[in-house]
Prior knowledge:
CATH architecture: 3-Layer(aba) Sandwich
Structural class: alpha+beta
Number of strands: 4
Distance between the termini: 16 Å
Largest sheet: 4 strands, mixed
Strand content: 15-25%
Helix content: 40-55%
Order of helices and strands: EHEHEEH
CATH class: Alpha Beta
CATH superfamily: Glutaredoxin
Radius of gyration: 11 Å
Number of domains: 1
Number of helices: 3
Shape: globular
Strand order of the largest sheet: 2-1-3-4
Amino acid sequence: MKIQILGTGCPKCKKLYDNASVAIKEAGIACELEKIEDIEKITEMGVMMTPALAIDGEVKFVGKVVDVAGIKKYLTGR
């Protein structure tokens, strides 16, 4: 599984990255976490507002900082 955090490096983007990192650890799953700051790559994924979170290349959240519980729900299916 691969999680991508899309954002240019603003405080909200950093917080979303931190939340995703904690969610991965708490869920106890093997996962790659990637931060994408290149605006061209972000727009290629169809994202016009950051921060955004994608799981396996599919954008799940746009324009908000999702909490740890919300990310874990997507990771575990619960």
